[in-house]
Amino acid sequence: MSKNLNTAAAILAAAAAGAAIGILFAPDKGSKTRAKLKEGIDDTANNLKDSIGAGSEVLREKFTSATSNLDGTLNDLLSNVSHKTEEVITFLESKLADLKEQNAKYQK
Q1: What range does the record give for the signal peptide (predicted)?
Q2: pTM for the full model?
């Protein structure tokens, strides 16, 4: 996005410099010069809109990719937690059985 922002800033700076030079050296009447300036501004605005549109598309793609990666990571994490939970339950059940055996010995 930074690259697009720099490009947009360079386009605006170039348009402003071109407009200033055009005004200083314009051989045409003021109305013609203003029309040329308006065309230049319109072209610059369109270029800027295109750059912003491209930048927002890049951001949208990166966000979609990051969301997809996050979903995958979350699913992996939940799967691992589920497996670990089963292991812990099995271990606790084993210990409980051992404790019941020891308790049964003391009950006699």
Answers
A1: 1-19
A2: 0.40
